[in-house]
Design a protein that fits this description.
The chain has 220 residues and is α+β, with helices and mostly antiparallel strands. It has 5 helices and 13 strands. The chain has a 6-stranded mixed sheet with strand order 2-6-5-4-1-3. A 5-stranded mixed sheet has the order 7-8-9-10-11. A two-stranded antiparallel ribbon has the order 12-13. A hairpin with an 8-residue loop joins β7 and β8. α2 packs across α4.
Length: 220
C-alpha cells in the first residue's frame, strides 16, 4: 500500500535536515491523501525531495519521524532500532550491572523511536505509547523485546491508558502483553525499592531521578 505524501512549506524543511524528530502542522503545505492517525507517511520538501518517514498524528505535532532515510518501518526495522537501544545501554554499563536493575530501556526521541517509552524493572518491561502509531504495534514491540532480552524479561506490561492521544478516540487498556508478574523489588545504587507499575507514577517509578536519590546518601 502506497504511503501518504506530505509536502512542507518552503523553508520549513530546515529543522528536518537538522534531524529534529517532529514536524509541526504549521509547516505542512499539502497532504496528498487522507491519512488515519498512526499511519506511516512520507515527508518531502517543497521541491519534492524526500526528507523523512514517520507516524502521522492530527494536532500540533503532525509527524513523529522514525527515519530520515527512505525505508519501510516494518518489524525488522523496529527490531534493529530496539537492538541498538539495548546495545547502547550495555555499552554504558547499565544493563548487567549488579548495582542497578531499574533503568530506561527506550527513551523515545533519544533512541529514534518518538512516541515509545520502555522502562525496565528487574525483569519487567513497562511500555508506554504516546502515539497511535506505536499503540497499533504494541504487541510486536513486546515480542521484539522478549526476543532481544531473552531470559532478562519475564513480563511486558503496557501502561498506555492515560498516554494515548485523546483525539484518536482510542481507549488504551493497561495490561500484560507478555507474561505476568507481581510488584518487584529493584536495586538502584545499592538501595532497594518496591515497584508497582499499576499504581506508581509514570511507568511506576521516577527513573530519571536516580542521581538526585544518590545525592541523598550524603544526608542519611
Amino acid at each position: 500500500m502506497e504511503r501518504v505524501k506530505i509536502v512542507l512549506k518552503s523553508g520549513k524543511e530546515q529543522s528536518v535536515r537538522r534531524y529534529h524528530p517532529w514536524i509541526f502542522s504549521g509547516a505542512i503545505k499539502k497532504i496528498y491523501g487522507n491519512p488515519a492517525e498512526g499511519d506511516l507517511v512520507d515527508v518531502f520538501d517543497n521541491k519534492d525531495s524526500f526528507l523523512a518517514v514517520g507516524h502521522y498524528q492530527p494536532g500540533s505535532i503532525a509527524v513523529r519521524i522514525l527515519s530520515f532515510e527512505q525505508v519501510t518501518p516494518d518489524v525488522r526495522f523496529f527490531w534493529d532500532k530496539l537492538r541498538r537501544a539495548i546495545h547502547y545501554r550495555k555499552s554504558l554499563g547499565i544493563i548487567d550491572n549488579p548495582q542497578i536493575n531499574v533503568f530506561r530501556l527506550v527513551h523515545g526521541e533519544g533512541d529514534g523511536l518518538p512516541g515509545l517509552i520502555v522502562d525496565y524493572y528487574n525483569g519487567v518491561a513497562v511500555i508506554q505509547m504516546h502515539s497511535i502509531g506505536f499503540y497499533r504495534i504494541r504487541r510486536e514491540i513486546a515480542t521484539i523485546l522478549t526476543e532481544l532480552m531473552k531470559d532478562q524479561i519475564i513480563a511486558v506490561y503496557d501502561k498506555s491508558e492515560t498516554t494515548i492521544p485523546h483525539m484518536s478516540g482510542i481507549t488504551g487498556v493497561n495490561e500484560f502483553l507478555y507474561g505476568d508478574s507481581d510488584p518487584v523489588i529493584v536495586t538502584e545504587n545499592g538501595y532497594k525499592f518496591k515497584i508497582d507499575w499499576t499504581t506508581g507514577q509514570k511507568t511506576g517509578f521516577f527513573i530519571d531521578q536516580r542521581e538526585n536519590r544518590k545525592l541523598l546518601e550524603k544526608f542519611t
